[in-house]
TrEMBL record:
<dbReference type="GO" id="GO:0016757">
    <property type="term" value="F:glycosyltransferase activity"/>
</dbReference>
<dbReference type="InterPro" id="IPR001173">
    <property type="entry name" value="Glyco_trans_2-like"/>
</dbReference>
<keyword id="KW-0808">Transferase</keyword>
<dbReference type="Pfam" id="PF00535">
    <property type="entry name" value="Glycos_transf_2"/>
</dbReference>
<feature type="domain" description="Glycosyltransferase 2-like">
    <location>
        <begin position="16"/>
        <end position="137"/>
    </location>
</feature>
<dbReference type="InterPro" id="IPR050834">
    <property type="entry name" value="Glycosyltransf_2"/>
</dbReference>
<dbReference type="Pfam" id="PF13692">
    <property type="entry name" value="Glyco_trans_1_4"/>
</dbReference>
<keyword id="KW-0328">Glycosyltransferase</keyword>
<dbReference type="InterPro" id="IPR029044">
    <property type="entry name" value="Nucleotide-diphossugar_trans"/>
</dbReference>
<protein>
    <submittedName>
        <fullName>Glycosyltransferase</fullName>
        <ecNumber>2.4.-.-</ecNumber>
    </submittedName>
</protein>
């Protein structure tokens, strides 16, 4: 019902909307405070009677409308709640007064001072177009008190609590953008939801100092009821604003509004979220002053939550290693149990990189020291000393030049002394309104912990032109599986992705090729890969024992949550987490390389375990056609299986390949056949079979064995094994030396060694297991021996090698065909297929849309 239908003739600047329900007497105070405005813009008032049960409310509203026609309009509707009443006022205002530029929402039991609308209107008129609403401080009456909301509007802070009352002047464009109150939220938080909707539409708020808004506070009210239901209401709110609470959105806000780290080097300083992002250096004194100001007023001012002190050359060294982001995330976690975290650096003696917990850290030797900014204040009060503070620590092992130990503590202590001086220099502050908001520096962490249950988030600043993928694996030793990961990662980097290696069960790893990964995350002191069978077994396969809720699980999720895709390769921890990662909108993929066999030939291992988690994976990536068919036969939807063709595990030198292939065309000129075994000396690869084959062919074949045992005790061999080789040039030299690559394996995928050997014209002689036949055609580009009892395999392998040794024409024909086939394989096609399959979920659509008749089963 519109009590005054003829109200559209006179336009206005501001419309005040007052919902009225069960507040007949207090409402008069509210409307009187609006009518008493001085110097205000042209104003109209809409009173929305929301099905009030009190006759007095209707009489009071009509009396005010008659007394102040046409300025006051009364709308009546059945009771639909506060949000619906405000929306009714919005709709009426937009239609009735096209010149209206803003709306102000006033609850019927609150009041505004005589200059509120004038000052709010002036502030909005002067503000940038993206400022969608002007909001006041809270001055309470009834139960007295005050609450400051001063400072710039901080959306991260707004995600943790509602820092704006509905009593805000809202720009018309906000409502025209479709931002309205959620009418299903009748138990509370509807104003918080409204402002988050406005923020999602690209608007931000602006604080109005000395506004003159007074909020009636009573011990029993709608606000009190909402607080009782806070947990349920928060869950509802976050589910409605998943895009704002998504990990990458939180990180994007953190990068813009509240950088996490204050990085101090001897002659430079930087406030940033992502330590790998292009540096924007600041003067150390300026950053110290910001830290002091935020310490004085943490809810209003921002400075980074964590202070990082690095000796000369340390940050560049850690950036080169790829470990810097992960180290800072782990340091943040360690600061929960000690006020200081020290990181020492060591030179790796074996060319590996690593990160290990240091249970008795010597902070004076630390090359990197991390503190909370609050600890910096404590150190400032102690004359800058950190000596008395407990510490946690890590040791990072690096390749290449390593800066000398120490230096970080002295820098931290000098900064603490500067911090103390900056605090003394701050002007006196008399703040009579306390600030109950969470500290701006802590807002991102609060969202990560409470909304995402993933903390700390890896400090990775999202980039609009690049997507992020994590390759998750328990170990990383540059074997066949690891080389596949490196090749895919390098191709994805060329396609514009950022690639991250996450190793879940090894604190020390082989250094990957420089072109493979943008960052490396190791897990010092974690026990992420624990797993078991028994009651936890799925169809006899072991499953993860990582708890659903624990600090360790929360930390692992935080390291992975910033990604847009995660590819899990043999990692139990990955299986345990993908369901939750998928809820973050992350595309989840499981990579399978081979189907293992136990001592009795029974299928065991990664593919069987992966089936237990099939529901949480968007994609199963099979590195052989055999495995792809197995996945489909085991219940994985065919559309969710991607079969990739493996290629050589490293780029070969063009001249070396050409020379090797040309040499294969030449006769051996009386020299013996050269055979190479290259791989792990574990039962899977058949080294026990190899010993017998070598003994049976010693009169016709020269042998080299390259590799070491990783899982099993190696057998005695007729020649001493050479150490494993990873360098591409050294691998090319091995393949160029050999006439035949011998693989007497019990099970395989599609071995990279076969593909690399073929590229060099080296003939594979292998058991016909797994996906080997997908890379080798018997009698055309290699020789295959049926797998079976050991004696039969040994006899078959021996016969094949002696045949090659005695027929040089056959060797040359097979070598020529092998080189031709090997030249056709490349990782670019595999990576392109994977990128297409990892398209965002919203890009996927049902194949068929049922008609209404089909939908009801007609």
């Amino acid at each position: 019902m519109n009590e005054h239908a003829d109200v559209t003739g006179t336009d206005c600047d501001v419309v005040v909307i007052i919902p009225l329900y069960r507040q007949p007497a207090l409402f008069s105070e509210a409307i009187a405070s609006v009518l008493a405005q001085q110097g205000a813009p042209a104003c109209r008032i809409i009173v929305v009677l929301d099905g009030c049960v009190y006759r007095q409310s209707l009489d009071s509203a009509r009396a005010w409308a008659r007394a102040h026609a046409p300025q006051v309009v009364v709308l009546a509707q059945p009771n639909r709640g506060l949000a619906a009443a405000r929306n009714a006022g919005i709709r009426f205002a937009l239609q009735a007064w096209p010149g209206c530029r803003a709306m102000f929402f006033l609850d019927a039991d609150n009041r505004i001072g005589p200059h509120f609308l004038r000052r709010a209107w002036q502030a909005m008129s002067a503000a940038a177009p993206e400022v969608g609403w002007i909001y006041p401080d809270f001055d309470l009456f009834g139960i007295g008190g005050a609450w400051s909301t001063a400072g710039t509007h901080d959306l991260l802070q707004h995600l943790t609590e509602n820092i704006c009352d509905a009593a805000a002047l809202v720009r018309r464009e906000v409502c025209e953008a479709g931002v309205v109150f959620d009418e299903s939220l009748r138990a509370g938080f509807e104003d918080w939801d409204f402002f988050l909707r406005a923020a999602s539409a690209g608007f931000r708020g602006a604080h109005l100092p000395q506004a003159g808004f007074t909020y009636r506070r009573r011990p029993e009210s709608m606000l009190t009821e909402a607080r009782r239901d806070r947990a349920a209401l928060l869950s509802t709110l976050r589910s409605r604003h998943r895009s704002l609470y998504a990990p990458r959105a939180v990180l994007g806000l953190e990068a813009r509004e509240a950088p996490r780290f204050a990085l101090f080097e001897p002659d430079a300083a930087l406030a940033c979220l992502d330590p790998e992002a292009p540096p924007r250096a600041d003067a150390p004194a300026s950053l110290i002053r910001r830290l002091a100001a935020a310490h004085r007023a943490p809810g209003r001012e921002h400075a980074p939550a964590l202070a990082v002190f690095a000796a000369a050359g340390v940050l560049p060294a850690l950036r080169r290693s790829g470990l810097l982001r992960g180290i800072l995330a782990h340091a943040e976690r360690l600061l929960e149990s000690a006020p200081v975290c020290g990181v020492t650096l060591g030179a790796s003696p074996d060319g590996q990189i690593g990160l290990r917990p240091d249970h008795q850290p010597k902070v004076d030797d630390a090359a990197l020291v991390v503190l909370r900014s609050a600890t910096l204040a404590k150190a400032a009060g102690a004359g800058g000393s950190l000596a008395a503070l407990p510490a946690r620590g890590m040791t990072a092992w690096l390749t290449g030049p390593v800066p000398p130990p120490g230096g970080a503590v002295a820098l931290a202590q000098a900064t603490a002394r500067g911090f103390a001086a900056a605090l003394r220099d701050l002007p006196p502050s008399r703040i009579w309104r306390p600030d109950g908001r969470i500290a701006r520096a802590e807002a991102a962490g609060r969202v990560a912990r409470s909304a995402l249950r993933a903390w700390p988030l890896l400090p990775l600043a999202p980039q609009t032109d690049r997507r992020d993928i994590a390759f998750m694996t328990p170990v990383f030793g540059m074997g066949g599986v690891e080389r596949v990961l490196c090749c895919l990662a390098a191709e994805m980097r060329r396609a514009g992705w950022r690639t991250h290696l996450v190793v879940t069960d090894a604190e020390t790893i082989a250094r990957p090729p420089a072109e493979a990964f943008d960052g490396i995350v190791l897990l010092p002191g974690f026990d992420a890969e624990r797993h078991g069978g028994g009651r936890n077994a799925y169809a006899g396969a072991a499953t993860s024992l990582l708890p659903e809720d624990s600090e360790e699980t929360e930390a692992l999720l935080g390291l992975l949550a910033p990604m847009q895709a995660v590819l899990v390769t043999h990692a139990f921890a990955g299986h345990a987490l993908v369901g939750r990662l998928r809820r973050f909108g992350i595309r989840t993929a499981c990579a399978l390389h081979l189907s293992e066999r136990g001592a009795f030939g029974e299928p065991i291992g990664n593919p069987q375990t992966a089936l237990a988690y099939q529901h949480a994976y968007d994609l199963f990536v099979a590195h052989s056609r055999e495995l792809g068919l197995w996945c489909a036969a085991s219940g994985v939807p065919e559309e969710a299986v991607l079969t990739l063709e493996n290629a050589p595990g490293y780029p070969a030198g063009t001249e070396g390949v050409a020379a090797a292939v040309a040499g294969r065309r030449m006769p051996r000129e009386g020299r013996r056949l050269r055979a190479l075994f290259l791989g792990r000396l574990d039962r899977q690869k058949g080294p026990d079979r190899l010993a017998a084959i070598m003994a049976a062919t010693r009169d016709a074949v020269d042998w080299r064995v390259v590799g070491r045992a990783v899982l099993d005790e190696p057998p005695a061999l007729p020649v001493d094994p050479e150490p494993p080789v990873e360098d591409p040039a050294a691998l090319d030299a091995l393949y160029a030396w050999a006439d035949a690559l011998v693989l007497p394996s019990r099970f395989e995928g599609v071995p990279l060694t076969v593909l690399e050997a073929q590229r060099m014209g080296c003939v594979p002689v292998a058991t016909d297991v797994g996906g080997v036949a997908e890379a080798v055609t018997h009698g055309e580009d290699g020789l295959l021996v049926p797998n079976g009892p050991d004696g039969e395999v040994i006899r078959g392998m021996t016969a094949a090698l002696l045949r090659l040794a005695g027929d040089d024409g056959l060797r040359r024909a097979l070598a020529e065909a092998a080189a031709t086939r090997g030249a056709r394989r490349g990782w670019d096609r595999a990576a392109a297929a994977l990128l297409e399959a990892l398209a965002p979920a919203e890009a996927l659509r049902p194949l068929l849309s049922p008609t209404p008749a089909e939908a009801v089963g007609a």
